[in-house]
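Why this split exists: single-chain examples teach little about how molecules sit against one another. For that reason, every record in the complexes split bundles all components of an assembly together and asks for one structure covering all of them. Below is a record exactly as it appears in the raw files.
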Amino acid sequence: MNPAIQIENLCKTYPRSWGSAPTPAVSDVSLSISEGETFGFIGPNGAGKSTTIKILTGVLRASSGRAELFGRDVALPAARTGLGYVPENPSVYDFLTPLEILRMGMHLHRTRVDDETRHCLGWLDRFGLAHVANKTVRSFSKGMTQRVALAHALAIKPRLLILDEPLSGLDPVGRKDVVDILDEFRRGGGTLFFSSHVLHDVEAIADRFGLIHRGKLLTIRSPQEIVADQADRYVVRYRASAPVVASEELRSGVYVLEAGAADLAAVIASVQASGGTVQDVHPKVSLETVFFRTIAASPDGDA
Amino acid sequence: MWQFSLSAWRSGFRSRSVLAILVLGVLLVGVAFLSASFSPRQPRTVALDVGLSGMRFSLVLFALFWVQELVGREVERRTVMYALSYPVSRAAYILGRYLGILGLLALAALLLGLLVWLTTLSVGGPYEQGFSLGLGWPFWITVFGVWVDAALVAAFALWIASLSTVPMLPVAVGVAFAVAGKSLGAVIQYLGSGADGDPEFVARYNPLIETVQWVLPDLSRLDWRVWPMYELFPGFPTIVLGLLMAAGYALVMLALAVMTFSRREFS
């Protein structure tokens, strides 16, 4: 079976103005994503995430290397059959209604359903847009436009979803709804490739994540590997009038301390015994830690 | 391709362009009516002449506006990324948009043509013209020529939009193209008739115009207004050759637009 996404030695350089050298945006990136996998693509601004996504969706052409969707070269229109795509800060057709936009996507992807209108309205309802299904999107807010774009991507019954910063521009409620819908899509066997600045979301959804920095793919890891990295160390944050042993004051009345898994229960008990209140306990090594560590250790230095 | 035409048709309808058509239509009727009122002789012919000139001007503006709105602006706002991520070729997007614009132009031509037709019929009062007008097929075939003229300008503007990174460039270059194309016939005729007896002028500009003729279509060949105005049939060869020229040029422009757009990168 072909992988959903196959990238080999992908390079992309942007030409600059006269007399200056081209800028490399993506350098020698290789990656394979299986069908049914959820892959999070993380990296700082300008790292090459969006460029890679644009090459995969046929918007840009690679300078060298190979990129395939389900075994077909991304340059071929057929490779994009069943591809749901939401670009960063999407701009949808101003003078069309959400219902028309969803229908258009279904027709172009030749998606077959029994009742097209019902199917589209169902997706618009999932994203809280059923009440504006027949209004032109011209007057929609950024968050509503983002949800129209997501509903459009999902209404085509995609086998692969490529989302560039899918959660940006959404309020906390919308964010949770989208994460739930993406999780449902993933559990249904769909392949999801997304980029995000919100590392917590990547950590919550992704089976694996790739960290790209200055055009180079620095690491591909899974949450299991991060758990292994953390060597059973946890950080306890608590509020108290005075610190318990080996704590560091975060701000006035708030302290943190590090503990091993075996000692965790005893540490929490001692905080409570001294009149403190535990605020949260989280693994010492999170995706965020990996993110900063990997970038700092890269040959190009800091972010 | 049909989906892109349909969305262009819907967007064109819902934008302010329909209002602009109505405003221009009212202005057109007003100007044609006033021109006829100020003319001591042949008021209907004058109204028709002014009305058809206004239509030619308005339809070209609409063509440029819709190319800018439905392609140029979509590229600028990156809405085009959706079109590019569909499992269809980029040619389908360009050709679909062009077909949509042709449909919108046809509707505008029909509405404005109807207003000009009604105005021409209503002016003049009891005054009997020395010659009759051809307000049947001759009029509507002339309106068709005006539509073909605008369609050709739209094809050119589409090519410019397919390569332009400056938002208003298709409109600016399109206006220049339309003005030059409409003036070319008169310039050729002037040089051909000896430029008021100035052989030096003819010698200087004739080679330039002969070269320009290869790259710029003579849009005056699509202006058959003498037929409805004076019932002077321009002849089948003139009409057919004008249409063939327009179709050939539009096809070349569309091929260039498809080639340019297919190779273009959208960062």
